[in-house]
Design a protein that fits this description.
The complex is a heterodimer of chains A (380) and B (137). Chain A is 35% helix and 20% strand. In chain A, the strands form three sheets. Chain A has a five-stranded mixed beta sheet. In chain A, strand 11 and strand 12 form a beta hairpin. Chain A starts with a strand and ends with a strand. In chain B, the strands form two sheets. Chain B has a five-stranded mixed beta barrel. In chain B, strands 1, 2, 3 and 4 form a four-stranded antiparallel beta sheet that branches. By secondary structure, chain B is an all-beta fold. Chain B is built from no helices and nine strands. Chain B has one domain. The chains are: A alpha/beta (380), B mainly beta (137). Chains A and B meet through helix 4, helix 5, strand 5 and strand 9 of A and strand 3, strand 5, strand 6 and strand 7 of B. Strand 9 of chain A pairs antiparallel with strand 7 of chain B.
Chain lengths: 380, 137
Amino acid sequence: MTDVHIIGAGIHPFGRHDDKTGLDQGVIAVREALADAGLAWSDMQFGFGASDAAGNADAVLPRLGLTGMQFINVKNGCAAGGSALLSGYWAIKSGEFDLGVVVGFDKHPRGAFNPEPADWGLPEWYGETGLMLTTQFFGNKINRYMSLHGISPTTLGRVAEKAFENGVRTPHAWRREAIGLNAIMNSRMISDPLTQYMFCSPAEGGVALILASDRKMRELGLAGPKLRGAAVRTRVAGSFEVFSPSLDVERGPSPTQLASKAAYEMAGVGPDDIDVAQLQDTESGAEIMHMAENGFCADGEQERLLEEGATRLGGKLPVNTDGGCLACGEPIGASGLRQVYENAQQLRGRADGRQVEGARLGYSQVYGAPGLSGVVILEA
Amino acid sequence: MALQPIAEGLFELSEDGPRLIGGRRRSDGRMVFPMPTGPEAAHHDPVRLAREGVLWSFTVQRFRPKSPPYAGADDEAGFRPYALGYVELPGEVIVESRIETDDFAGLRVGQPMRLTLVPFRRAGRGEALTYAFEPAA
């Protein structure tokens, strides 16, 4: 089977853009990715598009050109963008296509999402009595983890401090001002032990990646990072996920652990080989737990690693070099693709001001509701 | 007049106090809470769950949740933070619940908990009875 490469990448900065729709931002990202590769829209044989709350992804077609190409909308919870990439990956890997685009964009209202119990197959009382908030899930999950593995609230604060430091250096980030550890720790408590600055916000943005087979890439005289491994996995019984009125007493692995294992196996590499990682950081606790779930440390080691600055730029394993969701916000359709965009920039030596020198292998993991995780391993 | 339960079949009163009603799936014995309703109910047997368990995890809701789905009669100004979390009923299932306490700082994973019933004031629809766990000791 052929290898799949990213030969072009484009992004519309994340944040709030009152003058642009989500669709506008997706189209801008596609145009930038095409220009990056020096290709035309008419060269694209297929497209996969992700948008959760900003309308149909295939609404990009009238703007970019009605060429008759195969275009498929992907909606897959918080991993929508990551799932679009995976779809493009398999489209080329299968041999059916050798050049195409994946695009993700979104635009969410401000504040926490307000879900309808019926959409999740849950009874009305669950929402009525105030048990149906994503923020509660994150508080519950990290609180137990901290209790079992000796993680302190200060370590949660350090994750956010690092995110905002990296955001300062990243043109596509939303939050571009450093916030001190004390300000983070003393900001408004949202869901104990997580404070306001430890949570990301729903946001807007767009990302597009041009994918090509190895042969097509060489034919075009282009180059770009290779997708060494890519996997999406969903929850199993015993996994702790958002909006769960009950959990199994017998605990099981998380979807992240499953996706991570699958991607490492495909790539034939392990956590020690990774030079730069983008991990889902919906809030500070998620990044801490995902460091372990993706194999980068044992449970509890994060306390020391964060204190040493191991995950900062210049550290042993820089994590969320563009500030992650904490500094970029989380437009669901685009968020997983942002992580891959950032790794592509790192591996191509284009991450000005935040470059991880000599980065050869980049790891990304997107995770979210209703309990799914997508991992991509890129090689320079 | 006694308060009506917030949902039918969620809990029942027995001689030794209230009990939550879970469901055991017939195909594989997997326990869930609440007992499924509608067509799914036919695949489950109702189970009266244990009254006592231990705190599995917890958090505190610090702001008034968005309505809908939240239906509390309070407003932003009158909102009082509340604890919630998961209580492990040994050998049965881990259930999510409000935690009835004002001592948020005193909550600990592994703390013994006991089921209780509490009134819940709903906007425009009066009070109903819902379940909560409270520290047992």
